[in-house]
Design brief:
Layout lengths: L1 E4 L8 E11 L2 H6 L1 E7 L11 E7 L4 E8 L4 E9 L5 E6 L3 E8 L8 E8 L2 E10 L11 E6 L7 E10 L8 E6 L5 E2 L10 E4 L3 E4 L6 E6 L10 H7 L2 E3 L23 E2 L3 E4 L8 E11 L3 E12 L9 H14 L1 H4 L9 E11 L1 E13 L5 E9 L7 E10 L5 E5 L19 E5 L1 H5 L3 E3 L18 E8 L2 E8 L3 E9 L4 E9 L2 E8 L6 E9 L2 E10 L2
Parallel strand pairs: 1-3, 2-10, 15-24, 22-23
Antiparallel strand pairs: 3-4, 4-5, 5-8, 6-7, 6-9, 9-10, 11-12, 12-15, 12-16, 13-14, 13-17, 17-18, 19-21, 20-21, 21-22, 22-25, 23-26, 24-25, 24-28, 26-27, 27-29, 30-31, 31-34, 32-33, 32-35, 35-36
């Protein structure tokens, strides 16, 4: 470690170190990983002689760390400042034998040219400074792509995979990005880099089988490629940074927590949008939930994801209130959604339970397929459980009675609500830290009326009606295969996620195998819901994602 001493003049009241140690992040430094200098005060005959400052450079993050150590006397109001002034400044007080580290991460081109640290006491003042040159700093990490996986009934043999692109603020050195899914034709990312820096952007959603993997590779360039259409081979050879995470699998999905009846698995339905006029006329949330008949006795309901627009009407409400009314809506509509009791008016059912993971956290996600009028990705709050282990699972019991107007009255049985410590259960990359959630279900009580949702969600076992249905979406075609035991009439309806029906197609089924292809080449980017009705009975539904 190199020690640099000031050779300038000093006096009894001011000690100023005009040490300008140049921090240069070069290719050689990048190979070393970090650089460190020790700056030491000049001999003045006071306790200020013991003050030392260490500077360190974290090249992977484009960060600098400045540590000040004062072993012999107290320093008052030690301040750290980036030059030009007022970009970053803070103050601390250092007692004897204390040290403090100031850390700041920068991105090239933000105008910062140096740093300064200063403080003093009755003996005088001390100051250290250094230059910063970060123009060559450009981080690269495979951690910039992560995956969320969810088991749902519309991906019956596997799971849905949501790739999340999370680029740090200091990745602004890249000017163009291309992405490839499963080795397919690469696509240039729109609104890059400004729409991605410091944000979490979900790039589509993919259904894979349990025995499959999903590979996504992101190629970053410091210079724009122009009008050329590169191949995968070109990108591999030319990219300044290749973000290649481990392929996604269905090994660790977001799933319901369970505390009993372990042989009775939850049926997870596709994302379901709920309108909440009793909270806010414009508030709508999208939930993923599951239900089960447990231990031949209980009707169990559990929400495992809640999503709503950031800065929208729902954003004005606390998450426990949103959760409460979302569960109330699901119970009010459970006779249709889950075939749960009470199915008819003037009846009650006494073995309702709402299960919930004891700790939840939130993350702001931008959806790549959805942009506002300024071409910015629409940000959404996405809440999911932090932990789903048995010891973090909470149950709340209810009696539910259905009124003549089809509303339900929910009577809370006031089960014991455990006190769960969620402090150590949070995920580091969450925007809202992990927080206790067992009490959320405990607040559900009173009357709830059925309300409109984004689309009908009646899930039947189609084979019970003499039909075996398989669907697949690829190359702008929704492929539907129906094996029928008898002739019938089938109808396919397509909805947007806000419930607007945009297409209806009817065709005749003959006994045996029937194949129907529905083209979506004129559809804009986004998610769509489809229902399949046979002889006026809704026997299947699912969704597909269009990416342009």
């Amino acid at each position: 470690m190199k020690i640099i001493k000031n050779e300038g003049s000093t006096n009894a009241t001011t000690i100023k170190h005009k040490i300008m140690s140049v921090i240069m992040i070069t290719a050689l430094c990048a190979m070393l990983g970090f650089n460190s200098n020790n700056l030491m005060a000049q001999n003045t005959g006071t306790c200020l002689d013991s003050v030392k400052v260490y500077e360190r450079i974290n090249l992977e993050e484009c960060c600098i760390e400045i540590t000040i150590i004062n072993p012999d006397c107290e320093l008052l109001a030690v301040k750290f400042e980036l030059i030009p002034a007022n970009i970053y400044q803070t103050g601390v007080r250092l007692s004897i034998r204390q040290e403090h580290t100031f850390k700041v991460c920068l991105k090239p081109g933000n105008g910062v040219t140096g740093w300064k640290i200063y403080g003093g006491n009755s003996y005088g003042n001390v100051e250290f400074s250094g230059l910063i040159e970060l123009e060559d700093c450009c981080p690269c990490s495979s951690d910039w792509i992560t995956f969320e996986t969810i088991k749902a009934d519309d991906c019956p043999e596997g799971c849905w995979v949501r790739p999340i692109i999370s680029l740090p603020e200091n990745a602004g050195c890249y000017r163009e990005a291309w992405i490839s899914v499963e080795g397919g034709m690469p696509a240039r990312l729109l609104n890059f880099p400004n729409g991605f820096l410091g944000r979490n952007i979900q790039y589509g959603e993919y259904c894979i089988r349990d025995d499959e993997e999903l590979e996504i590779v992101l190629y970053l360039f410091k210079d724009r490629l122009g009008t050329i259409m590169p191949t995968i081979e070109n990108l591999e050879a030319m990219a300044d940074c290749i973000v290649r995470p481990e392929p996604a699998t269905c090994a660790d999905p977001i799933e319901p927590c369970m505390r009993d009846c372990f042989d009775d698995k939850y049926i997870i339905l596709p994302p379901y949008t709920i309108l909440m006029p009793y909270l806010n006329a414009q508030c709508s949330v999208t939930v993923i939930f599951g239900y089960r008949f447990a231990c031949e006795r209980f009707q169990d309901l559990q929400i495992i994801s809640i999503e709503y627009d950031e800065n929208g009407p729902c954003d004005l409400l606390p998450i426990d209130t949103i959760y409460k009314y979302a569960v109330g809506h699901l119970i009010a509509n459970s006779h249709v959604l889950m075939n749960f009791e009470p199915k008819l008016p003037n009846r009650c059912f006494t073995h309702w339970r709402v299960a919930n993971a004891g700790c939840w956290s939130g993350k702001i996600i931008g959806l790549y397929n959805f942009v506002d009028e300024n071409d910015n990705f629409v940000p959404k709050y996405r809440w999911t459980p932090c932990k789903v282990e048995e010891e973090y699972c909470c149950y709340q019991s209810f009696t539910v009675c259905r009124l003549p107007n089809w509303s339900v009255v929910i009577y809370n049985m006031n089960d014991y609500i455990p006190n769960i410590d969620c402090e150590d259960n949070g995920l580091e990359d969450q925007d809202i830290p992990c927080q206790p959630a067992c009490a959320w279900a405990g607040a559900i009580n009173g009357e709830y009326r059925p309300t409109n949702s984004s689309h009908p969600k009646i899930m039947y076992n189609s084979s019970e009606f003499g039909f075996d249905i398989n669907t697949n979406f690829a190359n702008n075609l929704l492929n539907i295969k129906i094996d029928a035991e008898t002739a019938a009439t089938a109808t396919v309806e397509i909805f947007t996620t806000n419930g607007t029906r945009i297409a209806t197609k009817t065709f005749n089924l003959s006994k045996g195998s029937n194949v129907y292809n529905y083209g979506t080449s004129k559809y804009t980017s986004g998610a769509y819901i489809y229902n399949i009705t046979i002889d006026n009975k809704l026997v299947f539904n699912g969704r597909f994602i269009v990416v342009r």
